[in-house]
Write a structure and sequence with these properties.
heterodimer; A: alpha+beta; Alpha-Beta Plaits; B: Alpha-Beta Plaits; 9-stranded antiparallel sheet; 12 strands; globular
Chain lengths: ~600, ~230
């Protein structure tokens, strides 16, 4: 199974249920114009192709760029260098985000031109840059711990939230959703991964996530401070009147040029910065640069297809569904919202990227399917609660947001530390382009029918909800993981007796494989170095579950311990010494889990020049 | 747990499509294996079109199980029966003699026949160059390779923030027949510039038995024994 096929299959798996649900609705209770219906189908096909190409391109281009840039940040010789470069990265990727421009002009219009669109865009980018810089410094210092950092950030948000109006609260969360777009999130994820790889050490895994979460607090703070600084409290907006476009191919083709330009602009700063650094500093081989260029092209084509398919094919459909179902029955509306939440979140491009990164970093210790399920449930609850909010005017947005974030932060002190970063990243990742188009249109459609609902406030609130519930649900999952984690108790040590000086004859080198629990590889290397080994290669894997296997009830997922394997190539003379020393320290250092294999006896092994 | 096997003298490796490793490990435990470790790995594709854009990789999992001789034989039997290794593209398995240091009082090794004439060439190079390494091996007659991501031991460096830079590495496992061993090795050594320091290392381990390898399209090859 090759990569392209695998990606296509992955996308198809999440697309098919949505298409089926919509088709069934259209043939049973909903009356929809043929144009919209056919356009929805065409949009689905474009989405399938676009998302597949996009994800493929991200792996080829965004990931390497993120890794190279993060090395550049991490190896700065001065504090100033670290801060300025990471601020610049955060600022540049945000300022070019098309969603943010749209939001800016919407706010300009709604505020009666007292707030200019440019001002908003620059303020938000400033906020993101600042938070990214803070997040990077936190990561490199390794303190304060991520949950404390996030706690402080959200306490500041909470304090500001009391000072601004509900409209601004909704818009600030929407701005946060707008900045974590389809392009920025994969880039920032790769950046975090690269930074934590460069930093290394025991917390490398926890540090591989969290920057997206930190970054998405930037716009919230920025928009709130705008309201605070300018004294602007109330804005009144009417969502523009709904005119479904007619025709099948025309709306799709018409919007392609605009989408193309948008995507190009969004892609520009990252690519520019990379090529700039490549010219002066990295000087990568031509072949590698060509690979990245190909990847960037795939990203561009994929993004255009995806966004265009979603805009032209999904928005009108979402709107019509929302309007018609809302006018039928409240319970049906809530149920439909739940189903859409379950499915739609899996079609967010960044959700796939995050999933891949989780799997890679934890070597499959956190099952991908479980993360997806948790995300789905989170989004489903978010959208169904939003539908409740639209139909019942007494229920306010912060009734859900405040306790949700408070509980999530509380749980962050009790859950498996890796999950803290993942959870907050998931919040940013879940509120991507699919939510901002299809689900938002659905909610606005519903709100336009319900007389007590405000299209602007209630519509925006959906995004805020989708950004919150995954944080909560993943944090809950992390708590379960923490509690189910198996501890290796002290075990009886069999006496270590070496076959006295197993004479290693005519062997240049010996290969030793050492398997230990996660985090102990460094100790193995230290010990081996003390006894004469030169270097080592560390692989990251997961072990088999033991008899006391930890299982999560109901879904029957087995938790497997994370392991590291250290591969040592040592001169033949010292291999048995190293193995022996390792076994002696088994209990004291390695929590009682240690496996040592070596090519011993007369097994031959040849090595070639060692670097 | 099976008690008739006390001495672990081989390590059984299997490369399977991603997602199958858990099932394989379960089966192995039913057969008496004490446990195993799973790594994420990449295989290589042969499609011309995909090679143009991106020559890596199908997602795979590498399973590693310590085993004694008879367990190892039954593991090979198991992957052959249950995981259909007699078909192409289902996966490969091989076992390498290793001494296990837990109960190493007496090592009865060395009475193992050197299997069906395969060797495992293991190359460790900087991250991203693993694919080149497989391509070099292909030129010299290898069928393919498996790439596992790893990182080198940290070298503490003082930038503004004290980092321990962990250079990212690719570990490439290539199985080769005795006849092609020399040429594949040379091809990798030359094209990866391994003679110069810092470019990587290469070593060769003997293989006792393999399953699931096909030397050419029609012939089905099966490990010794059974």
């Amino acid at each position: 199974m090759n990569l392209l096929y695998a990606k296509g299959k992955e996308v198809l798996h999440s697309l098919v249920p949505l298409v089926l649900v919509v088709v069934v609705l259209c043939f049973t209770i909903i009356e929809v114009e043929t144009d919209i219906f056919v356009r929805f189908l065409v949009g689905s096909a474009m989405l399938l192709m676009g998302l597949t190409l996009f994800l493929w391109g991200v792996e080829l281009s965004m990931n390497p760029i993120g890794i190279y840039m993060s090395n550049e940040v991490a190896t700065s010789k001065t504090f100033f260098g670290v801060v300025v470069l990471s601020f610049l990265l955060g600022f540049l990727i945000t300022v070019a985000e098309p969603d943010l421009l749209i939001l800016g002009s919407q706010v300009e219009e709604a505020s009666g031109s007292t707030l200019s669109s440019t001002f908003i865009v620059y303020m938000v980018s400033l906020g993101v840059g600042l938070l990214v810089a803070l997040g990077v410094v936190r990561l490199l210092r390794d303190k304060p711990s991520l949950n404390i950092f996030l706690l402080i950030t959200y306490l500041v948000i909470l304090a500001l939230a009391f000072l601004v109006s509900e409209e601004f609260l909704a818009i600030s969360f929407d701005a946060s959703g707008a900045t974590t777009g389809a392009l920025t999130t994969p880039f920032v994820l790769a950046l975090t991964l690269g930074l934590s790889q460069a930093k290394g050490g025991k917390h490398a895994e926890e540090n591989s996530f969290g920057l997206v979460g930190i970054m998405s607090a930037g716009p919230i703070l920025a928009v709130m401070s705008i309201s605070f600084i300018t004294g602007q409290h109330h804005i009144h907006g009417e969502a523009s009147a709904f005119v479904p476009s007619t025709g099948i191919l025309a709306p799709i083709l018409e919007s392609i040029p605009a989408t193309f330009v948008e995507s190009l602009v969004a892609l520009f700063p990252i690519s520019f910065l990379f090529f700039l650094y490549n010219g002066f500093k990295f000087k990568l081989p031509r072949k590698e640069v060509m690979g990245i260029v190909k990847g960037l092209f795939l990203v561009l084509i994929g993004l255009v297809l995806f966004l265009d398919g979603v805009h032209a094919g999904f928005m009108d459909m979402g709107r019509v569904l929302g309007m018609q179902i809302a006018s039928m029955d409240t319970r049906l509306l809530i149920a439909t919202g739940f189903v859409f939440g379950l499915i739609v979140v899996l079609m967010e491009p960044a959700v796939h990227v995050l999933g891949i990164q989780i799997e890679e970093v934890t070597a499959g210790y956190i099952p991908l399917s479980l993360i997806r399920l948790t995300l789905s449930l989170g989004a489903a609850i978010a959208i169904s609660l939003s539908m409740v909010r639209i139909t019942v005017p007494e229920v306010k947005l912060w009734y859900f947001l405040l306790p949700g974030f408070a509980l999530a932060l509380l749980l962050s002190f009790r859950c498996n530390p890796v999950f803290v970063g993942i959870a907050f990243d998931a919040g940013g990742v879940a509120s991507g382009p699919m939510m901002a188009t299809f689900v938002l249109a659905f909610a606005q459609g519903a709100a336009s029918v319900v007389p007590t609902a405000d299209v602007l406030v209630d519509g925006f609130g959906v995004i805020a909800m989708v950004a919150m519930t995954p944080v909560f649900s993943i944090m809950l999952l992390g708590t379960i993981f923490r509690q189910k984690k198996t501890r290796h108790g002290a075990q009886e040590i069999p006496m270590v007796k070496m076959a006295a000086a197993s004479e290693e004859k005519a062997v240049d080198h010996t290969c030793i494989l050492v398997v230990v629990n996660r985090g102990f590889a460094a100790e193995v290397v230290d010990l081996a170095r003390k006894h004469g080994a030169a270097g080592a290669t560390i692989l990251h894997g997961r072990g088999s579950a033991e008899e006391r296997a930890a299982r999560i009830p109901f879904i029957n997922v087995e938790l497997q311990p994370e392991r590291e394997m250290v591969l040592l190539i040592t001169a033949a003379g010292i291999s048995s010494l190293i193995a022996e020393q390792l076994m002696l320290e088994r209990q004291r250092i390695f929590e009682g889990f240690l496996l040592v294999y070596s090519t011993g006896g007369d097994a031959f092994i040849k090595t070639y020049p060692e670097g | 747990m099976n008690t008739q096997e006390n001495t672990i003298d081989t390590v059984f490796f299997a490369v399977v499509t991603k997602g199958k490793a858990n099932a394989l490990l379960h089966k192995a435990q039913e057969l008496g294996a004490r446990g195993g470790t799973i790594f994420l790995a990449e295989g290589t594709t042969r499609s011309r079109f995909l090679n143009k854009v991106n020559p890596a990789h199908a997602h795979k999992e590498l399973v590693m199980i310590g085993a004694g001789q008879s367990l190892c034989a039954s593991l090979h039997e198991m992957v052959f029966q249950t995981f259909k290794f007699y078909k192409r593209r289902k996966g490969i398995a091989f076992s390498i003699p290793f001494k296990h240091w837990e109960s190493a009082a007496e090592n009865p090794s060395s009475n193992q026949e050197p299997g069906d004439g395969y060797s495992a060439i293991i190359t460790i190079v900087n991250r991203g160059r693993g694919v080149e390494c497989v391509q070099a091996a292909r030129k010299a007659g290898a069928r393919g390779g498996t790439i596992v991501h790893g990182h080198g031991a940290g070298i503490p460096k003082e930038y503004f923030f004290p980092l321990s830079i962990e250079p990212q590495k690719d570990m490439v496992i290539i199985l080769s027949k005795k006849e092609t061993l020399q040429s594949i090795k040379d091809s990798i050594l030359v094209s990866m510039n391994l003679a110069d320091p810092g470019n990587g290392i290469l070593f060769i381990l003997p293989v006792l038995r393999t399953s699931g390898l096909f030397e050419n399209r029609m012939v089905e090859q099966r490990g010794a024994g059974s």
